[in-house]
Amino acid sequence: MRIGCLVVAALLTGAPLQTPPVQTPPAQNPPPAVPPAPAPPSPLQPQPAVSFEDWLAALKVEARTKGISDATFDAAFAGVQPNPLVISRDRAQPELTRSLDEYVAGMMSAKRIAGGGEAAVRAKATLAKVEDTYGVSAPMMVAIWGLESNYGELTGTYSTIASLATLAYDARRPVLFRGELFEALRILEKGLVTPDKFLGSWAGAIGQPQFMPSSFLKHAVDFDGDGKIDIWNSEADVLASMAQYLSAAGWVRGERWGREVRITQTVMDAIDRQVPMRTSGCRSIRDMTKPQSLERWRTLGVKLTDGSPLPVADINASLVRGVKRHFLVYRNYETLLAYNCSNAYAIAAGLMSDEFTSPKATTR
Prior knowledge:
The chain is of the alpha+beta class.
């Protein structure tokens, strides 16, 4: 779907604007005011070994060893109990329950593309300054901004401490979320946000970039120079923080993320026989092939979506497969996986950025 390409290209370059037709996406119901009663735990799901109260007491002891004061800890956990809605959301993430093709189609609605145009106008000067500073293209920043928080409209209403405590207490991924919980407490200890304003997603991601607390402490920047880092309200801090993250992950200025390609079943069979898959990294990385030269992919019979040959360029690419849609992805794509290690997410970000075509982008 490329209805927004010319629109946002005009917005980012100053050319006359032509508004695309807007299709109405499926309605999104707001979360219920009262969480539904949790389903009985499955015997296949690991369960916490101790009560939440005992777990919290031990957590407080450990927090002291990490420099978290009792005053900060007590204020953070006032009234906190495990949230069953968080657990149910954790078990039903759309990147994991829908195919890549379905996820991409759902995320790239006409409304979201049009919203990117409006956001690009609103933040045009900031986007240009951030791109000059960090090298990440304005179209990619707009795409990620849209996927993460609908351009700042949806930053989350869950208590960050309660969400992270729920997931750290849960037995599925306790080490990951226990670490993030301590990072969240460090944010409070530093006075960077107050507990009542410390809100985010069900998974503990915060602000318009939806950073986990550890990412906030590493990558969030005060780009507007007002003396504080505010990824909830300052568009300058939001966009620069996202760009800093991608730059630190290895984003290469001027290179594209990848492209959709056409692969027949005969060609796919040959790829299966001749091109090895990756064997380390997150699940999405392991679902990619090892990088091959574009010439190698040309020889195997991979073509552009219009049936023409792949471009001639000295760059390696890996194959990401959907159900019916397939993609060759370059090294900048791997920085998107560093931001969110989901092929469905990263492909959606890449395709959305293509809708927001930048004159600075290369054609490789």
